[in-house]
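Quick one, probably user error.
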């Protein structure tokens, strides 16, 4: 954390005043806001999201100037893209989506910092979910919160609370910036603070990107007059050299991961893990969690290791990818033989994977190139490495003969078994059939969305069942870009996140697959003012009138049925078409399988919502039957 103090010059009435820095310099709050906007632009910020408010007015006016076209922008105002949202929670997630997608707009693979601006009070607290997600997923956000000057804090002044530290340990840097008074050194101090903030947000010194918080006190007057913008300066704009990038790049430019010096494991600790030999032949799999990046695929293919990759890993696809891995891990000939797991990214979707990583007879090697932490939820990692070994990169650590082939043969059989259950299984798990066609289940919808997504597309996967259904049924040789908020895996802000992604990647078709509760939780993300940039985004909503994921967990066991619907299933009966109409968003409804592909094939321009009515009555039975049929199919081919 960092705090600063500046000296105010009291006027005869006892109020702090600004000592002017020159004729026509303007109100100190206005000048300071303009200098800050100049500095952020110089430091690489290109997008700013603003939620309206009065105390943040100096920044709002400066950003409005910066967003003007080249022919209208005032002299010395930088060029920035401005996005205005009335809901601070959506503003935070929109900024998160912009930053997350920016890692895929250039060649560096690093996310650019995006700033988000709010006024004081509860507006600040509404950013907390997005700040937490950015913290846990390593996304660079620059949070700019306006505040009352220090003399008004603790006095009961309107819309005033204790804002410094409100985000706790979730920010990489906190600076409580005193209200400017117009002293000559203030512009330098503002630039210096901005340089530190952007360096901390991008992880330039720490390799640990994430959110930062500048709490900016502003004293009235808050509005500009006719004074010109200050000439840009360089005093205080410290150049911060970035640490060399890791040799294991990530898909988002940031994953919670690790600086750890463990390059070896104590050989005599767990001898069973070394069999059948450290020099090769160890049955190894690569587990690629969210943000693992293409390195996971390269490592798997170099050594002919099975690749167990989540959809948002950035590694799913290619000749080593196993789509039904979470069901195949139960096979003794496959999961039972694993003796080493190489983990990249943050795997969060599958309990079978967690059980594999927790086994005493499995050596766990975590590749974690960034930050202070690393993934090890089972608390069983043997090694935490900054980068891959030369032997691993060069493919000199193959598994036993036939190891990869066994996984791929079993996966082919598993895919056929999954399709058979989804298309031809009993009505209790396949969904009731109407007079005109087959009803849709969650996995059937996910399979259709995956098939409709090309390598040029972007797919934003919602938490809960949608991302897990994709994990089971997505079969990509060359996958689309899949993004998801897996830092804390909440359902909040998903529509706004997808909107930010679409704004950042306007030349790619962007689609979001979400559940109905996720959609309702962030339906405000559909709201866009008429002056805001248009966006092309298709939101596919799996509407099963509640939270079907709980049916697949212990809460859905039959003996708990008396309380399940009210406190876990939470049916809502909401009219999604009416909601979309209220927001001026195109809506279509699909109720049968035959209507899926036409709805997905041509999203059209602008934002559209495709509501797919999903049957959740047989969700628990379907999951059990899928596991049973995959196990039987795999056993047949493995033991033939």
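Nope, works fine. Designed sequence:
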């Amino acid at each position: 954390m960092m705090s600063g103090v500046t000296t105010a010059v009291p006027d005869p009435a006892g109020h702090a005043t600004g000592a002017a820095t020159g004729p026509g310099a303007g109100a100190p709050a206005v000048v300071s806001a303009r200098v800050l906007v100049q500095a952020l632009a110089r430091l690489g910020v290109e997008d700013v999201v603003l939620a309206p408010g009065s105390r943040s007015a100096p920044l709002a006016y400066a950003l409005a100037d910066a967003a003007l076209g080249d022919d209208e922008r005032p002299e010395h105002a930088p060029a920035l893209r401005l996005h205005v949202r009335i809901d601070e929670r959506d503003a935070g997630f929109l900024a998160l989506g912009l930053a997350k997608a920016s890692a895929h707009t250039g060649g560096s693979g690093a996310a650019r910092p995006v700033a988000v601006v709010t006024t004081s009070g509860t507006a600040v607290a509404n950013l907390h979910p997005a700040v937490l997600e950015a913290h846990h997923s390593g996304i660079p956000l620059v949070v700019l919160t306006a505040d009352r000057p220090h003399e008004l804090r603790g006095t009961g002044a309107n819309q005033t609370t204790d804002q410094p530290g409100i985000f706790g340990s979730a920010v990489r840097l906190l600076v409580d910036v005193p209200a400017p008074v117009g002293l000559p050194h203030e512009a330098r101090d503002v630039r210096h603070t901005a340089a530190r903030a952007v360096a901390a947000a991008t992880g330039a010194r720490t390799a640990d990107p994430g959110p930062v918080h500048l709490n900016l006190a502003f004293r009235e007057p808050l509005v500009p007059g006719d004074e010109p913008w200050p000439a840009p300066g360089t005093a205080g704009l410290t150049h911060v050299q970035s640490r060399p990038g890791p040799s294991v790049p990530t898909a988002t430019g940031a994953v919670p991961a690790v600086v750890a010096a463990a390059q070896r494991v104590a050989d005599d600790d767990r001898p069973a893990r070394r069999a059948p030999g450290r020099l090769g032949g160890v049955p190894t799999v690569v587990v690629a969690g969210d943000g693992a990046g293409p390195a996971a695929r390269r490592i798997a293919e170099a050594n002919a290791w099975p690749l167990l990759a989540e959809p948002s890993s950035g590694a799913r696809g290619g000749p080593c990818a196993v789509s039904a891995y979470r069901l195949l891990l139960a096979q003794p000939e496959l999961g039972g033989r694993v003796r080493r797991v190489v983990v990249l990214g943050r795997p969060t979707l599958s309990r079978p994977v967690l059980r594999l990583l927790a086994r005493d007879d499995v050596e766990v090697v975590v590749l974690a190139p960034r930050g202070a932490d690393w993934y090890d939820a089972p608390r069983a990692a043997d090694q935490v490495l900054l980068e891959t070994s030369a032997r691993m990169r060069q493919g000199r650590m193959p598994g036993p003969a036939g190891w990869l082939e066994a996984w791929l043969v079993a996966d082919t059989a598993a895919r056929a078994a999954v399709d058979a259950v989804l298309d031809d299984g009993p009505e209790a798990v396949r969904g009731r059939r109407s007079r005109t066609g087959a009803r849709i289940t969650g996995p059937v919808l996910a399979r259709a969305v995956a098939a409709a997504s090309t390598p040029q597309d972007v797919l934003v996967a919602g938490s809960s069942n949608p991302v897990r259904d994709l994990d089971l049924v997505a079969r990509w040789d060359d996958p689309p870009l899949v993004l998801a908020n897996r830092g804390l895996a909440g359902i909040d802000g998903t529509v706004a996140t997808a909107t930010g992604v679409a704004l950042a990647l306007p030349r790619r078709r962007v689609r979001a697959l979400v559940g109905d509760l996720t959609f309702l939780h962030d339906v405000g993300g559909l709201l866009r003012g008429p002056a805001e940039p248009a966006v092309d985004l298709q939101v596919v909503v799996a509407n099963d009138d509640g939270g079907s994921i709980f049916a697949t967990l212990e809460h859905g066991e039959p003996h708990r049925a008396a309380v399940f619907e009210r406190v876990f299933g939470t049916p809502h009966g909401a009219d999604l078409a009416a909601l979309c109409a209220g927001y001026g968003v195109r809506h279509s409804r699909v109720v049968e399988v035959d209507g899926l592909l036409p709805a997905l094939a041509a999203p059209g321009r602008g934002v559209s919502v495709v509501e797919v009515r999903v049957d959740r009555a047989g969700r628990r039975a379907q999951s059990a039957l899928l596991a049973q049929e995959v196990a039987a199919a795999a056993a047949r081919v493995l033991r033939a």
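The chain has 20 helices and 20 strands.
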